[in-house]
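Workshop exercise sheet. Pairs work together: one partner reads the sequence aloud, the other fills in the structure field after running the prediction. Swap roles for the next sheet.
Pair: D.N. / O.F.
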Amino acid sequence: MKVLVMSDTHGYIFNAKEALARHPEVEMVLHLGDYCRDASQLSQLYPDKKFEYVYGNCDIGVGTISADKTIEIDGVTIFMTHGHKYSVKWDYNRILSKAKAENASVILFGHTHVAVIDNVDNKLVINPGSMSESRSSKSESYVIMEVAGGKVNADIYYV
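Structure field:
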């Protein structure tokens, strides 16, 4: 299954629509917060895609939407969160502990607006960066994950 991972759209969905146009084979979209209502809007525009999302520190009035979510895709357990509750701007200690408690092998978070794919403590750690305002020397970004047979391959793409 191909999965588009995005975060930090902040009300600007043009780049998200561009990413979906570039990758029509994507079956699922994971939005990691800031603004989760963008994910809701995108899910209405793309009813053929499955959407999962969490709220971030800039989301208000989210109702029953969770800050954390653990999902399984093709035998892979994935912990997704925005990251602000786990101090991801400083280190990965708290988010690694939570992922371990959730028995997740993949950790997805946003918040920093900087894309990264890393292996830490036998966990695949992925931050897709920001779809609206990159804080790195590169442009806005997202991640495409391919999940098959209990394995995950992930690549960063720039808008």
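Discussion prompt: The first strand starts at residue 2 and ends at 6. What would you look at next?
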